[in-house]
Structures are given as structure tokens and as C-alpha cells.
Design a protein that fits this description.
Blueprint: E1 2-5, E2 8-11, E3 13-15, H1 18-23, E4 35-47, E5 56-61, E6 67-73, E7 80-91, E8 102-103, H2 106-119, E9 124-128, E10 133-137, H3 140-146, E11 155-161, E12 166-169, E13 175-180, E14 183-186, E15 197-199
Parallel strand pairs: 3-4, 14-15
Antiparallel strand pairs: 1-2, 1-8, 4-7, 5-6, 5-7, 9-10, 9-11, 11-12, 12-13, 13-14
């Protein structure tokens, strides 16, 4: 999921379940992608940095995506608190400050995230620019490997989903565009097909 803050774009993982929020950045040997924590409703939160091996910027947001607090957390730090929080972005050397403008589309990102989870169970295909299926796989990781082979020279995207709700991935597995309940959204190049479109940040 892409989160735009002023002129910066963060390609984030989503943590929107109790399990994923509890995991956070723990046990990573290197930072990897930022994480956007999403809570069901605004609440008072308390974070810790147990088993996190690097400093991390924490950006606390309210339900309107206004920045409430920016905090540089150290490894093993405890009791990092903030009130009325709906989202928390964890990123390294973010450069974010109070008053910065934050943009992202939570609804589409969450639905796309669910589709990607379902894709782990199968129905992952690689298509050419005419929509013809070149190969089918059980896992996204296998499709990504295929995209690096000579057999994928005519491949366009990795496609997942059904006729009314689907996601296309770039060759490296990043979200490119999707259709959610008949509406089209794009993270990549603007595409016009006479349908409802919304360009995502």
C-alpha cells in the first residue's frame, strides 16, 4: 500500500489484525518495508520496541489522517503512547514532521490486501498485454520467479481475483492496479477505459 506524505511515498505493509499488529517489525534483521498499523476505531495506544533491532520513526495519525505525534523510537524501548489513534506508520528515517499532509486509500488497500491473502491459496496467473494467460501458479512467489525467466518475455502482469474484483501486480510483485466491486483504481500509469477511475497516491 502506498502512503504519500508531502513529496515522499512509502510502500507499506499493512497490519490490520491483532496478530499482525503484535508482530510489527519484530525479529527483522533489516528494516524492510514500512508498516502501516490500522485500528478498527480511534483508541489510546501503547507501543514497545521489544525484539526490534533498529531505530524507527513512528507517525501517529487520527481518523482524518492528521499527524498527532512523530516519535523516533529506539530498540527495546517501552511505553510509547498516544491518544485517539487510528493509524500508525513505522518507517526508517522518514523525515516526516507535524503538519505534513498524509494521503492513502484505506478501503481499497484493505480489500486488495485480502485478495492478496486469498491468492496464497491459488488462482495466480501471469497474463500478456492482451489478457491471455501464459502460466498459472499456486503462489505469488512462484509467479514472481516466472517473470524473471525467458518464458515470460511477453508477460505483462500477475493477475489475481475474479471478473468484478481483481488485482494486478507488477513483475516484482508490487500492486499496480485493481478493480473493487466494479470500480477501477490504479497505483501505476493512468489507464482510461471509459470506466470509473481513481488514481491512488
Amino acid at each position: 500500500m502506498k502512503v504519500s506524505i508531502n513529496d515522499k511515498v512509502f510502500n507499506c505493509e499493512i497490519a490490520d489484525t491483532e496478530e499482525s499488529r503484535a508482530q510489527g517489525l519484530q525479529f527483522r534483521d533489516e528494516p524492510g518495508p514500512p508498516i502501516l498499523f490500522i485500528f478498527d476505531s480511534p483508541e489510546d495506544v501503547s507501543f514497545h520496541m521489544h525484539n526490534v533491532r533498529f531505530p524507527t520513526d513512528m507517525i501517529f495519525l487520527d481518523e482524518n489522517k492528521n499527524i498527532l505525534k512523530v516519535y523516533e523510537a529506539s530498540p527495546e524501548e517501552e511505553n510509547i503512547e498516544c491518544s485517539n489513534v487510528k493509524y500508525v506508520l513505522e518507517a526508517q528515517d522518514s523525515g516526516v514532521k507535524l503538519g505534513d499532509s498524509v494521503m492513502f486509500n484505506e478501503k481499497v488497500a484493505k480489500i486488495a490486501s485480502e485478495i492478496l491473502k486469498e491468492a496464497q491459496k491459488g488462482s495466480v496467473i501471469v497474463v500478456d498485454d492482451n489478457g491471455k494467460t501464459l502460466a498459472a501458479f499456486d503462489k505469488i512467489s512462484d509467479a514472481k520467479k516466472f517473470m524473471k525467466t525467458p518464458d515470460a518475455k511477453n508477460a505483462d502482469t500477475i493477475a489475481i481475483g475474479s471478473k468484478s474484483t481483481w488485482v494486478n501486480l507488477e513483475p516484482d510483485g508490487k500492486l499496480f492496479d485493481c478493480r473493487i466491486d466494479g470500480k477501477y483504481y490504479s497505483w501505476g500509469v493512468w489507464i482510461s477505459k471509459g470506466e470509473h477511475h481513481e488514481k491512488l497516491s
